[in-house]
Amino acid sequence: MRKLYLFRKEDLHGHSGTGTVAEGVIFHNGMVALTWFSEWETMTTFKNVQTLKRLHSHEGRTEIIIEGVKKDAERFETCQDHARSLKAKRKHTEESES
Question: Is the distance from CB of 68 to CB of 25 less than 8 angstroms?
């Protein structure tokens, strides 16, 4: 499995925000599972990365950053750090509400 992130430069529809908006994995068979960092925690699956790109690239406003792809290396680290921060913030919020 390889990890991936969606990095959105511009939020075309005003739903998911900008920056690292989702994380996912690419399975051995090419299928992709993706979960969003929005307030609506959902998980979606796609036949492959190309399908994900067709549905969510928003005319180049969103990049798919894949672990182990040389051109994505620096952005992958940034997305990974941002994802950790979002998860920690969500965990803190959930603990505060309980």
Answer: no
Q: What residues does each domain of the chain span? A: 2-97
66 close to 52: Cβ distance less than 8 angstroms: no
Residue 66 to residue 23: CA distance in whole angstroms: 10
25 pLDDT more than 70: yes
DSSP per residue over 50-91, as a string? HHHHHHHSTTTTEEEEETT-GGGHHHHHHHHHHHHHHHHHHH
Element spanning 55, H or E = helix 49-56
**Structure confidence by residue, pLDDT tens digits, 30-85:** 999 999 988 778 899 999 999 999 988 767 788 999 999 988 888 889 989 989 88
Q: What is the pTM of this model?
A: 0.82
